[in-house]
Amino acid sequence: MNEKKTLKPLTRAEMDVMNVLWDASHALTINEIVDGYAEPKPAYTTVATFLKILEAKGYVEHKRKEETGRTFYY
């Protein structure tokens, strides 16, 4: 039986992160996501926290590229 996975609704701040990701043509690092914001830009740690929440909700996932080592791409 196919069950549809229902995603939890996004807050305004989570939607802001998603809009930066949707506007990109490729996976982004946290620094690139921060750069995608208008001034005043949020702190790196703030965006990282929202990405953790979005990943837990099932909206994003992260990957590591072999050549970059520890850098996550969303």
Polypeptide structure, described:
The chain has 74 residues and is mainly alpha-helical. It has a domain at 25-73. It is 43% helix and 5% strand. The chain is built from three helices and two strands; from the N terminus they run αααββ. A two-stranded antiparallel sheet has the order 1-2. The longest helix has 14 residues, at 44-57. It is globular, with a radius of gyration of 13 Å. The N and C termini lie far apart (31 Å). The mean pLDDT is 89.
Pick out its properties.
3 helices, 74 residues, mainly alpha
Write the layout of secondary structure elements.
Blueprint: H1 12-23, H2 30-35, H3 44-57, E1 63-64, E2 72-73
Antiparallel strand pairs: 1-2
